Amino acid sequence: MRRFNFRAYRVPGTNFPAAELDYGLLADRLRGDRLLIDAIAIVERNQLNQSASGRRYGELRLKMTNRVEVRPGQFAMLKPHADFEPLLRRAMAYYRCEDLADGLRVEFIYQILGRGTQSLSRLRPGDMVDLLGPLGNTYDTQPARGRRALLVAGGVGSAALYMLAENLRSEGVETRLFIGGASAGDLPGVDRFEELLGAENVICATIDGTRGTEGFVTEPLQDHLRSIEARGPIIYACGPDPMLHRVAQIAEKSETTTQLSLESPMACGFGICVGCAVAIKSDCPEGFVYGKVCTDGPVFRSEDLYWAE
Q1: 167-194 per-position pLDDT tens digit
Q2: How buried is 177 (Cβ within 10 angstroms: 0-12 exposed, 13-18 middle, 19+ buried)?
Q3: Facing residues of 179 across strands?
Q4: pLDDT surpasses 80 at 211
């Protein structure tokens, strides 16, 4: 397999100069500098599925010849290498990562909606993909030690929580997942979560009632919080904004520490385009200032976010 060159760029806020690097030098510098890697990955698999609700999903597996550290909650910007339209890459949360002797295998789950994800859905094994990443921050698992972790996923938001679940389990943290979608086919990755956490620790909710509780996933979450008496759990959530807003409300009422991974359209992924602005609470007259999901997040503490009523 051909070994492609890749570039390491300075992340805003660091003093590391932009430069083209060989892998050995990059591996040494990664330990102390925040780098994002612009590489070409090879498609190994691109499995497409359609749910009973009509929604379409893809599970994309890529092979990279360069090895970098990917942390739970981080994301990459993806685009088929051969396509000129659409011009901009699409932000995708890392779903799974596997170190290989000759590189790195990464997986992503995406919902097929517009032109960007439609172009990704046409990828075939052997095709090349432009990949910029890993980008963004990660979850803080320190507060979860000695407590119970509750993961809350809405649709493809589950992808951003799988590696977190792996880490929490490896640290001995009792972990439970609440996952919701429109129908049984709109719970991406649910089977893998059941293998990892045990079926008894995966609670499903679907709008049409075809799997688990009928209704929104926030309902069984709220019921669970009301039923427990042990030291308060910590919540980690990723999904659409309305779900995250409701999770934040529930967390505030139950005084539960919560970290939210936001989903947002973005053009660059590293703080230049300002297309992913998010309101952050502030003492200024307006009550908020704008941060960026790509560089300040995507993971935020729920109490720091300003939700417009």
Answers
A1: 999 999 999 999 999 999 999 999 999 9
A2: buried
A3: 153, 204
A4: yes
What is the Cα–Cα distance from 132 to 92, expressed in whole angstroms? 10
Main-chain phi, psi angles of 83, to 5 degrees: -95, 135
- Domain boundaries along the sequence of the chain: 7-135, 142-263
What CATH code would you report for 7-135?
Answer: 2.40.30.10
**CATH number for the domain whose boundaries are 142-263:** 3.40.50.80
Query: Residue type at 61?
Result: R
Domain 7-135 and domain 142-263 have a common topology: no
Mean pLDDT across the stretch 83-105? Answer: 92
The 10s digit of each residue's pLDDT in 50-67 is 999 999 999 999 999 888
Res. 31: pLDDT tops 60: no
User: At residue 248, what is the residue type?
Assistant: A
Burial of 170 (0-12, 13-18, 19+ CB in 10 A): exposed
